[in-house]
Specification:
- It is a multi-pass membrane protein.
- This protein has about 1000 residues and is mainly beta.
- It has a 22-stranded antiparallel barrel.
- Strand 34 and strand 35 form a beta hairpin.
């Protein structure tokens, strides 16, 4: 038998199509034919490829049956349901953002450590990043030929290199597929939105006496997305869960009462849907759709003080909120709940057998993902200084200005008069080619396996933002005056350069000419290209034997080069040498240094680095007897040299012991892992902003200076210590088909890369921290005073907890088919983040359901499979939690009992977020040979998300944990022969 029984999950999945993720050896098949059909299984958590070897690093596996049961247009969604994956990004996250460039980007995060600390591989090979942060987009992977996904839940840098701090997610494709298969899928929510269509086909055929293997596949996926709601609390569809939940800040920290108050139906009183005068004697005058003034209804009995500061008594002036009242101008629910997505993928693999043991191959993948989202409706703007002489003002307001002796007032508006809302449109196009060889040979009387490959990948991302305000023009357009009886822009320079006035007092639609001026067709734009080249070679064999069996050895080397360049539009970047200047003509109203857009001010930059690596891994059998069981020692080391930061070493030491107790195995591994700074952190495109009244601690005075947010080429890799200890019970004689494992993990990351602001950098230098003193110059020989705000190796993260996994496969007398019960759980005991800044306090965000690391996450599946049909029920659950963040840990207390509130430990009156249970059901039925119909209902009980309060009126829900879409129906057909 030539199978490598790496894990029971893999063995069971490939032999019977069951769902299991236990990292244990399966019982040998009774039928020799079934044994040979298993072929070889390559374990992701190790480079050792020897029969019978069991890696000490826990690995969870999703097989083809699991992925099909999930019935998702993107298998990323199925994989992220594993409890160990926390904080992954996808089509439902980041939709509130205009400038991040990560909308619709599907990328994994293990242990809540972030997508940048999880290494994602395709057939054990790196994939070109789809973002300057270095993370790939799973939507760009070929998916129909994926036969399993391995999730290594421990550090793996010694085996695979940088980024494997949280672990590894490895997609394994079927490299010998023969025949034809197709899959079509459609879906819709219970609210009638997010219609989805998926079509996939794959074919494989052998030629030249089965020596030439050719595979092709193609996919098209269209997901409508969930459109944004409107203003106020108008959620999309008939969803009614949005309540503008907010943490309002009383602004008092030491009176024995909580500083923050949890409130729903919060009202931002600085602006309204069609405009509000927010200070002075006319404070509280609002405007309706027709531009008529009326008295704004403040919530909670709030009364405007009508002073210059715009205070509202009876409300929370520090946070700018009332509770209740007129909520029509709030903008938080105007965010897409899921991005629109269109995905196209073409993949081919051609392999040629040089002989029975050696193959050369080439793969090529071309993929494109287009997404779009709405970050918010209108463009809420506050503190606009408006003139009482503005000809668009109603006569009654002009008269009130005169009666009160004022000539200007502050004004805020949601800009609901704009006919189209802001939309962001990222498009990612990726080309990836690999040539390689895989096989075995004899040397020194021993058999050795090898694999070698060269990969080149390019990812181009183009981001367009549409219908967004060009702020200097907007500010010029709203300041109107009358010249020769015509209403025109007050600024003669703006007027001479095409300014068309607009009326922001009410809901009158601006003219087409005015819209073209303030929201030009050529909006914010970013063009970026990421390139990756990798050359790798690996060997594995058993050079000699000891008393307990053969010693296994793996070794190899890798060279990698990463590079990127990004170009922003001139209005955002300030780069007048941009080749797009014909689309962005010069305008004296605009700021030459850029940052002219309401949002989406992209900047230009470039950078590259290269890596050389060499590693070795050895497995030494220590014990092999009936009396003492079977034990092995697994060790690995890797030398890595970065062109930017020099040399770093990683290693792991672990082992397993199959004890004499029936089915009981112990395993443990500890490792030193790294995450190298990515291109964005090293060579971030510079962003310059002016900071007036900047405090100079050296003189005690103030000055105006430039803050340059730039990359830091002197960054070093983050270093992590990762330890896992576990016990496994697998397939005992007293309960065949049952397995359970419990693993404790502990990760300590030091030198974490974090950013500092200009004032922090200067203050640290003043306090004697010399490493920050070179980042600023208050008296340069040329130019203005500046501070370079950079990232530094300052932060640390400490997290620990448990992974528990169990499965039981059984049959019942006189009942056809097989039954499987499976459960996976992850406990996050602590997740402590220390920013590394003097005076800052470490925060434990474990159990914060406003983030990504609840105390417990659980996935349970019960399935019944027969030759004709299959049924399954799945439960996804996570525990109750609290509010908070990586720098904030709230202290719940009531009036009269609160300690002094601090920045990292603020006091709050209510600090609870209910967990959630989601029930999914699925089934399939085979119609004759090759044809199968299937269905899936996600969130069967239509469980609404628990409010996740914001400190403004943003979307009060957390898509990292909660389902925002509601009940979802999928149906489809599969065909194969």
């Amino acid at each position: 038998m030539n199978a490598l029984f790496a894990t029971s999950a893999v063995a069971v999945l490939l032999s019977a199509g069951a769902a299991s993720a236990q990292t244990e050896p399966a019982p040998a098949p009774a039928d020799p034919a079934s044994a040979t059909a298993l072929s070889e299984i390559v374990v992701t958590g190790t480079r050792i490829r020897s029969t019978g070897f069991t890696a000490p690093t826990p690995t969870q596996v999703l097989g083809q049956a699991d992925l099909e049961r999930a019935a998702q247009p993107n298998i990323f969604t199925a994989i992220t349901q594993l409890p160990s994956l926390q904080g992954s990004t996808g089509a439902t996250t980041g939709t509130f953002s205009t400038s991040s460039g990560q909308q619709g980007l599907s990328s994994f995060s293990l242990r809540g450590l972030g997508t940048i600390r999880t290494l994602t591989l395709l057939d054990g090979q790196r994939v070109v990043p789809a973002n300057v942060t270095g993370v790939p987009d799973i939507s760009l992977f070929p998916q129909l030929l994926v036969e399993r996904v391995d999730v290594v839940t421990g550090g793996a840098s010694a085996s695979y290199g940088s980024d494997a701090v949280g672990g590894v997610v490895n997609f394994i494709t079927n490299k010998k597929f023969e025949g034809f298969k197709a899959n079509v899928l459609t879906g819709v929510t219970t609210y009638g939105d997010n219609h989805q269509w998926l079509a996939q086909v794959a074919a494989g055929k052998n030629f030249m006496d089965d020596r030439l293997h050719v595979q092709v596949s193609g996919e098209y996926d269209w997901e409508e997305g969930v459109p944004a709601g409107g203003f106020g609390e108008d959620a999309p569809g008939s969803r009614d869960w949005y309540t503008t939940a907010t943490l309002v800040n009383r602004g008092v920290t030491n009176d024995g009462s909580p500083q923050y108050l949890y409130r729903e139906h919060a009202q931002a009183y600085q602006y309204t849907k069609y405009g509000l005068i927010s200070n002075g004697p006319l404070q509280g005058t609002a405007f309706d759709l027709s531009g008529n003034p009326f008295q704004f209804q403040y919530g909670g009995g709030g009364v405007p003080a009508k002073n210059a500061a715009g205070t509202v008594s009876g409300c929370y002036s520090n946070g700018g909120f009332c509770v209740g009242g007129d909520l029509s101008g709030n903008v938080g629910v105007g965010t897409s709940l899921q991005s629109r997505l269109k995905r196209m993928n073409a993949y081919t693999r051609v392999g040629f057998d040089l002989d029975a043991n050696n193959e050369i191959y080439a793969t090529f993948n071309a993929a494109r993902v287009e997404s779009s989202n709405q970050p918010n409706p209108g463009a809420a703007t506050t503190n606009l200084t408006m003139s009482c002489s503005n000809p668009y003002l109603p006569a009654s307001v002009v008269a009130a200005c005169a009666a009160n002796g004022i000539t200007t007032f502050n004004f805020g508006t949601s800009n609901a008069q704009l006919p189209r809302n802001i939309s962001v449109h990222p498009t990612r196009t990726q080309y990836r080619g690999v040539i390689g060889a895989d096989g075995k040979f004899n040397a020194l009387g021993k058999e050795w396996r090898y694999d070698a490959y060269y990969e080149h990948g390019e990812n181009t991302t183009n981001i367009h933002v549409r219908d967004i305000l060009l702020m200097p023009r907007y500010r010029a357009a709203i300041q109107a005056t009358t010249v020769n009886g015509q209403i025109v822009c007050a600024d003669p320079v703006a007027r001479a350069n095409g300014c068309v006035p607009i009326n922001i007092f009410g809901g009158q639609r601006p003219s087409d000419a005015a819209l073209a001026y303030i929201t030009p067709t050529n909006g914010p734009y970013q063009h970026s290209v990421q390139k990756q080249d990798v050359a790798s070679i690996n060997f594995s064999g058993e050079p000699f034997s000891l008393w307990a069996g053969p010693v296994s050895l793996a070794f190899g080397g890798e060279w990698r080069k990463e590079q990127y360049h990004v170009q922003g539009d001139p209005y955002g970047d300030g780069n007048t040498d941009s080749p797009n200047t014909a689309d962005y003509p010069a305008d004296p109203v605009l700021t030459p240094s850029g940052a002219n857009w309401f949002a989406g001010n992209y900047h230009s930059g470039a950078g590259e680095y290269s890596v050389k690596e060499a590693y070795a891994e050895v497995n030494i059998p220590l014990v092999n007897s009936d009396a003492a069981g079977k034990a092995n020692l697994n060790m690995a080391g890797r030398w890595t040299d970065y062109s930017t930061s020099g040399t770093v070493y990683t290693w792991k030491v672990g082992g397993t012991w199959d004890t004499p107790v029936d089915g009981v195995r112990l395993r443990a591994v500890t490792s030193r892992d790294v995450r190298a700074p990515n291109l964005s952190e090293l060579f971030a495109a510079p962003v310059t902003t002016t900071l007036p009244n900047f405090t100079n601690p050296f003189t005690g005075g103030a000055l105006t200076l430039l803050q340059n947010v730039v990359g830091n080429p002197d960054l070093k890799p983050e270093i992590a210590k990762n330890t896992t200890v576990g016990v496994v019970l697998s397939n005992p004689r007293w309960l065949p088909g049952f397995s359970v494992s419990v693993d404790w993990y502990n990760i300590v990351l030091n030198g974490g890369i974090s950013s500092l602001g200009a004032q922090q950098i200067v203050n640290f230098c003043f306090s004697g921290l010399q490493q920050f003193c070179g980042a600023f110059n208050f008296a340069p020989a040329q130019g203005s005073p500046y501070v370079n705000a950079q990232t530094f190796n300052l932060a640390s993260i400490k997290t620990s907890g448990f992974d528990i996994e169990s499965s039981y496969r059984f049959e019942l007398p006189s009942v056809p088919g097989r039954f499987t019960v499976r459960g996976l759980a992850t406990n996050t005991h602590k997740f402590v983040t220390n920013p590394g800044i003097p005076g800052a306090v470490a925060v434990d965000s474990a159990g914060q359901n406003s983030g990504a690391t609840p105390d417990w996450k659980f996935l349970a599946i019960q399935s019944w499979d027969t030759d004709r049909f299959a049924l399954s029920v799945q439960e996804r659950w996570f525990s109750d939690g609290t509010f908070g963040g990586t720098t904030t840990q709230y202290v719940e207390c009531q009036a009269g009992s609160c300690p002094v509130s601090t920045a990292s430990r603020p006091t709050i009156d209510y600090n609870h977020m209910k967990g959630a249970t989601y029930v999914d059901v699925s089934g399939s039925y085979k119609f004759g040979k090759g044809l199968q119909a299937y269905f899936k209902v996600d969130n069967l009980l239509n469980r609404d998300p628990t409010p996740s309060p914001q400190t403004n009126t943003g979307l009060d829900a957390n898509p990292a944990l909660y389902d925002l879409l509601g009940r979802f129906y999928h149906v489809g057909l599969r065909y194969s022969f």
